[in-house]
Amino acid sequence: MNPVDSITVEVVRHHLLSAAREMARNLMRTSYSTIVYEIRDFGLGIYDRQCRLLAEAPGLAIFTRANDYALRKIVEFLGHDNIHPGDVILLNYPFWSSTHTLDVTAASPIFYGDQLVGFTAVKQHWLDLKQKDAGYCLDSQDMHQEGLFFPCSKIEKRGVRNTELEDIIRFNCRMPEHVLGDMNAQISSCRTGERRVLELVEKFGPDTFSQALDQILDHGERLARARLASLPTGTWSAEDWVDDDGIDTDTMVKIKATVSISDTELVVDFAGSSSATNGPINIPFGCTLGVAGLVFKSITTPDTPANEGNFRPLRVEAPPGSLMHAVPPAATFTLWPALLATEVVTKALAKGLPDIVPACSGGDVCSMMGVGIHPRSGKMWIEATNEGVGFGGHAGRDGENGIMHITEPGCRNNPVEVLETKAPLFIEDYGLRQDSGGPGKHRGGLGVTRTYRFLADSSAVTLVKKTKTRPWGMAKGQDGENCHVILRPHTEQERVTGMVYENMASGEVLANCSGGGGGWGDPLERSPDAVLDDVRQGYVSIASARQDYGVVIDPDTLQIDPTATQALRRS
Predict the structure, then answer these.
(1) What dihedral angle (degrees, nearest 10) is formed by the CA atoms of 160, 164, 167, 169?
(2) Distance from CA of residue 446 to its chain's centroid?
(3) Residue 400 bridge partners (DSSP)
């Protein structure tokens, strides 16, 4: 069979990418929750009939391969004979869906006549599914405390709404209007993708369409393998520590990654990580695939949209029953180690690719969630946001200040105006954390501080798991400042903490402080003029300029004292 001409292949490829972006736009326009339409806590894609990713839209990056894994589990569980035109299937069983119970996958098959030609899949965060605590579970000890499961359940059967399942959802949610509204947005997004794919199949025919998909994926593989072949071969390991598992708060939990690069593949092995924990920080294997896939994509094909071919040279291993390969009935609700695992894989790669890989970022998305009864409506409210973190410095330049963590490059934080409109919160201040970036020839980016005053009795849920270790520097660069939360600052009850579920009285304050990136290179090699500019910008204090960079700056004139600087750097 002759290959499809390259122009047709490109038309098909870009049509699919446009369709995925349209799915995302429709999802955001019709969702009820800011976590979807503001923060973009979702991942979606279009797949062929073999469940191979063809196109995606930016969102949570680790959802990409998690959806791949989930879709294959749906087909495996239901079987092709039990998948029909018009079906929409819900899956949130963590060990199949690859994330915690509130991240629900909706998938729909795409039929051309009676021929299955593909799937759409949309994963997004739901606000509630009868988990034991409103908002988030920080101390669940098995999966049965973590909410309602959909084991490949059809919410629409042959295009007809399954009202019995809808009622089960309605009566098992604290916020049914929001949850069902978001679910309908997911279904609408799936239907949008179906229509756009069918337009392609109608235009070119199923055979040409199928051949074009094979060529798109093979091209994605060639790009990844070409880049892989240019990288040094070898094996490197790294580790870091999660604060705790939410139950035993005195014991830190280890993540270890060993990365091996050969001429034909890159292997990420998480052997040596902690065993599964009692608390809810265990990671389903599909999420682990997402962690490794994100790093692999970033060093091989970062400039092209993701498809299944990009990941063919990647192999991921994690012992079943370990932290990075959770098995039932392990608790998985607070799977925050996935964020840090991304950094650990990068840390291992840095030993072999020091000129490509940056120092550690702030290491956490430093989320804060408010939960309570709104004084105006009398209804439950849940609002959350992830803070920007400092990125690590690297061989080429400083790290960026206050941007989304590497695991969520398509996401945003929740704007001040939205939070104050939707929730009884007042944002007292919001800005960069001076001196939080690790000193280096190339400075680490700064983290941020956002301070919340609660205007009604509520609960604060802080989702932070890297407060006991600092973001590491590279090549003699120094560590950045870690993230942390300050409860009730400047009062007798002040407490610096990490992940907590805390009752907050009206008028009480919480300061959420995200981490800075590690520095790259010896700080004494940083240009004094660059240090002076950092001081004038407020990024670095005069004290840090002297202590960390050996640059003496007059506090009155904000000018460098060259003689004192030269003497200090010599010493």
Answers:
(1) -90
(2) 19
(3) none
List, in sequence order, the alpha helices (H) in 86-205.
94-97, 163-171, 176-204
Domain contains 19? yes
**DSSP letters of 234-249?**
EEEEEEEEES--SSST
Last residue of a domain, one of 222, 248, 267: 222
Rg (CA), the chain: 24
Alpha-carbon gap, residue 364 to 367, rounded angstroms? 8
CA 46/CA 240 separation, integer angstroms: 35
Decide: 553 and 559 in contact? Cβ < 8 Å.
yes
Q: Give pLDDT, residue 287.
A: 96
Structural domain count of the chain: 2
**140-174 confidence digits (pLDDT tens):** 999 999 999 999 999 999 999 999 999 999 999 99
Query: How many angstroms separate the CA atoms of 334 and 319, rounded?
Result: 20
| 270 neighbors 341 (Cβ within 8 angstroms) | yes
Domain span at residue 153 reads: 6-222
- Whole-angstrom distance, CA of residue 469 vs CA of residue 444: 16
- 186, 33 in Cβ contact below 8 A? no
The answer to whether the beta carbons of residues 109 and 85 sit under 8 Å apart is yes
Per-residue pLDDT tens for 321-372?
999 999 999 999 999 899 999 999 999 999 999 999 999 999 888 899 999 9
Residue matched to tokens 């038309």: 11
**Residue 305 in domain:** no
Q: Which of 514, 392, 388 is CA-nearest to residue 441?
A: 392
Beta strands in 293-439 (DSSP E): 314-317, 367-373, 380-385, 425-432
- Is 323 inside any structural domain? no
Cα gap 318→334, rounded to integer Å: 19
Structure tokens at 520: 């790259």
H/E element, 30: helix 6-30
